[in-house]
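Tokens as discussed.
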């Protein structure tokens, strides 16, 4: 598929092991979110362009409780080296002081992507004006594969046929403990309608709830860089 019309800086989301995706979900008190955004953006600016870096993005949840970093790297060694670049270690300590959960990035691969745009791939870009929906789903290694089967099947049956749907991109963490959906919609209301319909129509919902705990929110992009 062609990506010639995709603007830069843009992070292209598509299945495959290259590049490696690192996603970090930061839990924060609402009154600290703006300060944490500043620290995360500063860290991203120092890490961007280091060997192995493809892209770095920082997003904040609209409810004030989360910040997400979404980065792409050619390999894990590049990410680890970037984390040692001065003053990133000091900034990481400031991040830990401001967060509730003291997280570290998990490594992911994109296992499924569906996009209705002319380019046929989703991008993380400052030019995007629709709703960004990100769902971090907690599971266990023995159930991760089944969870992905269920949520992808539900997306194919329901979300794709819902008004306002633009894309869904499911990621599998390498440690087996997470699945992440980065999804784009015309508006948040369209996505909420789809979630409500799923609760009424998804015949596999009970099994999904048994093996997974979702944590979904709407986000806006506050920083983007691309090598």
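Sequence:
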């Amino acid at each position: 598929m062609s990506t010639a019309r995709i603007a830069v800086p843009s992070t292209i989301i598509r299945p495959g092991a290259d590049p490696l995706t690192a996603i970090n979900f930061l839990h924060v008190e609402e009154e600290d979110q703006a300060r944490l955004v500043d620290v995360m953006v500063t860290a991203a600016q120092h890490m961007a362009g280091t060997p192995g870096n493809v892209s770095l993005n920082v997003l904040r949840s609209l409810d004030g409780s989360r910040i997400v970093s979404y980065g792409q790297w050619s390999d894990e060694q590049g990410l680890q080296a970037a984390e040692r670049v001065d003053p990133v270690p000091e900034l990481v300590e400031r991040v830990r002081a401001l967060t509730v959960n003291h997280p570290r990035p998990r490594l992911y691969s994109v296992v499924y992507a569906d996009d209705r745009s002319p380019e046929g791939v989703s991008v993380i870009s400052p030019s995007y004006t629709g709703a960004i929906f990100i769902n971090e789903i907690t599971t266990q290694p023995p159930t991760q594969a089944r969870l992905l089967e269920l949520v992808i099947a539900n997306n194919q049956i329901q979300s794709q046929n819902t008004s306002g749907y633009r894309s869904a991109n499911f990621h599998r963490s390498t440690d087996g403990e997470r699945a992440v959906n980065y999804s784009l919609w015309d508006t948040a209301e369209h996505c909420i309608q789809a979630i409500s319909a799923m609760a009424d129509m998804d015949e596999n919902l009970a099994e999904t709830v048994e093996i997974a705990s979702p944590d979904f929110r709407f986000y806006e992009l506050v920083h983007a860089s691309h090598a």
